[in-house]
């Protein structure tokens, strides 16, 4: 098969499947992984696809991977607000916290009292909300701005998190799978959330019932890295039992 023909078929496959890993493409076309990586570099320069860590993403789908903030604000609002209020109950004066760029974290920031706290975040919305509470010290991760989610990601943000250690991290995600852990639809969000989890003594995952049993594109961590899950009462009883079997502490609101 000619190089141009292979590359065209790669684009077709990636568009059809939305995302593919280098190993899969290597097996499909019976060429080395290094050859596939060179193909992906070429195709990305031609704007025919977007490379990700270990694979490629369809450019026809990449815009949908990062859901706009205004859309997330109106999805499962009641559950998110209740989860956020419960999360605030886990906070004590003097705590050093991480809040991610989820809408649930924003609701949490709105509910936090004006007490002595330090909050590290990659969210513009969270930082702005806390700016009206003078006793709360806010530290931004910095990084590359994703306009759809109003959040900072990328190497600068990830590196800044390595400089800090906090007591508690409050993280949301797109999916929680019993066997495959937690995941995000956007790879850059997944990478920075992984760093957030690594920087905290105690990790709280804040998700509503719709996120359970879901595995999205980018893996964040296994369930062994989670200490508590704050969720609503609509979670299926079978999932609750499976999580309890893994010694995970569920806080239901």
What count of structural domains? 2
The CATH topology of the largest domain corresponds to Rossmann fold
Instruction: Give the CATH level 1 class of the largest domain.
Output: Alpha Beta
Number of strands: 15
**What proportion of the residues is helical, as a percent range?**
40-55%
**Roughly what fraction of the amino acids lie in strands?**
15-25%
GO molecular function, one term: DNA binding
Organism: Lentibacillus amyloliquefaciens
Pfam family, one: HTH_DeoR
InterPro entries: Carb_Metab_HTH_regulators, DeoR-like_C, DeoR_HTH, NagB/RpiA_transferase-like, Tscrpt_reg_HTH_DeoR_CS, WH-like_DNA-bd_sf, WH_DNA-bd_sf
Provide structural commentary.
There is one protein chain. By secondary structure, the chain is of the alpha/beta class. The chain folds into 2 domains: 3-63, Arc Repressor Mutant, subunit A (Orthogonal Bundle); 70-252, Rossmann fold. 41% of the residues lie in helices and 24% in strands. The protein has 11 helices and 15 strands. The strands form 4 sheets. The chain has a 7-stranded parallel sheet with strand order 6-5-4-9-12-14-15, with helices on both faces. The chain has a 3-stranded antiparallel sheet with strand order 1-3-2. It has a 3-stranded antiparallel sheet with strand order 10-11-13. Helix 2 (22-29) packs across helix 3 and helix 7 (103-111) packs parallel to helix 8 (124-130). The N and C termini lie far apart (58 Å).
